[in-house]
């Protein structure tokens, strides 16, 4: 039994998000625009990514500090070779109760069975449109939404609990909310709509592009009869609703209009092995990879990770204003290094 580790704002550490690659097979404008991530773009060489044994070691140490949930992100994590072997090893770590994966879904049919056998049960698929032409224009790789929907169906068939995450941007895909809800209404999939945030440095964000939770609710209530679902646990980021009379629920994530920094229990490791206390960090993260590759013992690594959590005071979304957005422009870590 470990004593609870709290940060400067009294938040415990519970979740660890690990980016296992900076590569992706999509080129979405707001994450990896094709003008920047072209054919000549140099991704991290293999030895700069955390090796599986390093990820397992650091996760074991984090579990001793209170981490219970691990989420594997990217880039696109299904591009990391033998990911199932990593999942199987994390699944064995004492104290880890839950492993999730965030993916664009394209390779689910191919890799799903092995991941399931390795112990993965929960998958979040990022899908920002259900209209084929619109989705193709978003991913810049000519991938149809129907292709991803098929992958999602297959994943559900395999036994995964699947959530679909939609980042809603005004004038871009807000007309997808109703058709997507309609499509998933009677499926065993939870869909969540997320307010557009200024993640990374290339997503062209400003306040006018945010569709707030209240605006989304307004759109939804004009089309469906819905009722709220009470929160299930401390720090649950989505506010859930269900269609009256239906089993499936859907969520709204109020990252901008009602931020949830006060219950943010997430530590992040970027694909190059740096620690970040926040998705919006503007300072270079602490180099955990170098620490793991030094002669430091597990106990020394643990003390350092504990210290990093103790000094964490990030609450960017609570403080977001035109000014803070401008101040951090071009200084944040890019999304393909840290996931969403
Ligand atoms: S802005 Fe940072 S501290 Fe706040 S909820 Fe998001 S990741 Fe957590």
- Sheet-strand content, in percent, reads 15-25%
Runs in which pLDDT lies below 50 for 5 or more consecutive residues are none
Percentage of residues in helical conformation: 25-40%
| SSE ordering | EHEHEHEHHEHEHEEEEEEHHHHH
CATH superfamily of the largest domain: Aldolase class I
Ligand identities: iron/sulfur cluster
Question: For this structure, what is the CATH class of the largest domain?
Answer: Alpha Beta
Instruction: Trace the largest sheet across and list its strands.
Output: 7-8-9-6-5-4-3-2-1-10-11-12
Q: Architecture of the largest domain, according to CATH?
A: Alpha-Beta Barrel
Quick take:
The chain has 340 residues and is of the alpha/beta class. The chain folds into two domains: 12-126 and 264-339, TIM Barrel; 163-259, no CATH class. It is 32% helix and 18% strand.
Set down the secondary structure blueprint:
Layout: E1 15-19, H1 52-65, E2 69-73, H2 83-91, E3 98-103, H3 108-118, E4 122-126, H4 132-139, H5 145-158, E5 161-168, H6 177-184, E6 189-195, H7 213-223, E7 226-229, E8 238-243, E9 249-253, E10 266-269, E11 274-276, E12 286-287, H8 288-293, H9 298-310, H10 316-319, H11 322-328, H12 335-338
Parallel strand pairs: 1-2, 1-10, 2-3, 3-4, 4-5, 5-6, 6-9
Antiparallel strand pairs: 7-8, 8-9, 10-11, 11-12
Helix pairs in contact: 1-2, 1-9, 2-3, 3-5
Bound molecules: iron/sulfur cluster.
Iron/sulfur cluster (SF4) binds next to helix 10.
């Amino acid at each position: 039994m470990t004593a609870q580790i709290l940060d400067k704002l009294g938040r415990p550490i519970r979740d660890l998000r690990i980016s296992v690659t900076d590569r992706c097979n999509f080129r979405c404008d707001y994450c990896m625009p094709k003008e920047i991530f072209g054919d000549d773009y140099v991704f991290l060489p293999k030895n700069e990514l955390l090796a599986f044994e390093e990820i397992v070691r650091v996760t074991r140490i984090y579990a001793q500090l209170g981490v219970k949930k691990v989420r594997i992100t990217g880039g696109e994590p299904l591009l990391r070779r033998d990911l199932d072997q990593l999942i199987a090893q994390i699944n064995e770590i004492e104290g880890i109760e839950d492993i999730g994966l965030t993916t664009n879904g394209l390779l689910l049919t191919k890799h799903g069975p092995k991941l399931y056998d390795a112990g993965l049960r929960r998958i979040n698929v990022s899908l920002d449109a259900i209209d084929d032409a619109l989705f193709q224009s978003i991913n810049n790789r000519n991938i149809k939404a129907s292709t991803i929907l098929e992958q999602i169906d297959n994943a559900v068939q395999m036994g995964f609990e699947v959530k679909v995450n939609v980042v809603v941007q005004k004038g871009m895909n807000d007309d997808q909310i109703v058709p997507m809800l309609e499509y998933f209404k009677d499926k065993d999939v939870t869909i969540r709509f997320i307010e557009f945030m200024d993640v990374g440095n290339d997503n062209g964000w400003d306040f006018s592009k945010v569709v707030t939770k209240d605006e989304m609710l307004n759109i939804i209530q004009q089309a469906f009869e819905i009722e709220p679902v009470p929160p299930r646990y401390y720090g649950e980021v989505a506010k859930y609703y269900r269609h009256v009379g239906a089993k499936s629920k859907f969520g709204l994530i109020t990252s901008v209009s009602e931020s949830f920094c006060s219950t943010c229990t997430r530590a992040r490791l970027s694909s190059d092995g740096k620690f970040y206390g926040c998705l919006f960090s503007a300072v270079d993260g602490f180099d955990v990879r170098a620490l793991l590759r030094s002669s430091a013992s597990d106990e020394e690594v643990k003390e350092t990770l504990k210290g990093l959590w103790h000094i964490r005071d990030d609450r960017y979304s609570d403080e977001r204003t035109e000014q803070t957005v401008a101040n951090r422009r071009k200084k944040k870590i890019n999304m393909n290094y840290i996931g969403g």
